[in-house]
Amino acid sequence: MNNILEVNALKKDFGTFRIDNVNFSLQEGCITGFIGINGAGKTTIIKSILGLVIKDSGSIKLFGKEIDKNERELKNRIGVVLDEGYFYENMTMSEMKSIIATAYSKWDESVFKSYIESFKLKLNQKISTLSKGMRMKYGIALALSHHADLLIMDEPTSGLDPLVRSELMDIILDFIKEYGKSVFFSTHITSDLDKVADVLILIDKGKIMLSEEKDILLDTHGLVKGDKNVLNDHTRKLFLSLNETEYGFEGITKQKTSVREQMNGVLIERPTIENIMLAYIGAK
Amino acid sequence: MKIIIANVSDTPLYQQIKEQIKDAILRNELKQGEILPSIRALANDIHVSVLTTKRVYDELQSEGFIITKAGKGSFVAPENLELLQESKRQMVEIKLTEAWKTAFSLGITKSELYAMMDLIFVEEDRK
Questions:
Q1: ipTM for the complex?
Q2: Which residue segment(s) compose the domain that B112 sits in?
């Protein structure tokens, strides 16, 4: 599979916070989850890709072409849903759509109509009266009605109830079914990714901590539980994170074989993405 | 075809899926020429990464169980008797090795083990 997005040596210094030499790429046909706690740098990186934040240095290539030099052409191929929405609150959905549609050379009104219908939205409703869930669905309809190949979303699930979150995951899975489509979205709600993500990129304090296939990540890490008497200076080193209580311990390891050989009677379970994320952020 | 993924298992995901598809082909549940779901559809349905299902199909293809035609999809390969026999034999061999290991560790002799096997055949014949 080809790389559809390549970020190389991206740097941006805000003084109090900086994105430090960030490198990563997205594979075609994949749903890539961009995870990290609030303030880790997810939005800054997404905005740099979109040119909404001017980077200090580094290169960003979309579909193999430098975005700085081919902005108009490349932006026609991406659909974007940002956290805040950036809509005019006093307009109806229909009016706002007319403004946005003109920005895209391949806008497809029939695709838009079918999304609006399946999301049960009423185009004459004012944007200010929309619920968070409706606003997100409207944003998706706007982002996907010009035959985009890459859908980029910043925290699309934050503030949504579990039912709407699950609906959004189904929308994403439906979009990606078509050959050649890719999705990149940031979230701090890792349970969204358990169901849909193919690849995970973990960021913390402006640095990429992990970039790996989700299933490999879950296969190679283990959640270990057991009695504290098997913990010693040596076995402690096998863990990325360790949590001890009066009743026993719980830890995340990347060395399952060694744990099994050196620690008798421990339980090794499959971790969740959240377990792994916290282990890498907490470690150091 | 059913695919069940064990979360407590230590076997990597792609291997669990691969073995189950292979079993379905060997048991003739998936018949030759039958079309398999696309890697994305399978990934969506069983909630694994598309990269995992791609790895599964790539390996099944290189082992001769399936054929992938560009733009058309993946199909169960025409029955290759030799391959099928070999795989079936291998499945039994694995189980026998396990049984032998258990017997060995419990101090059961070769003739006792053979006698057990004879008994199983006799019981099976009576049914």
A1: 0.77
A2: 81-126
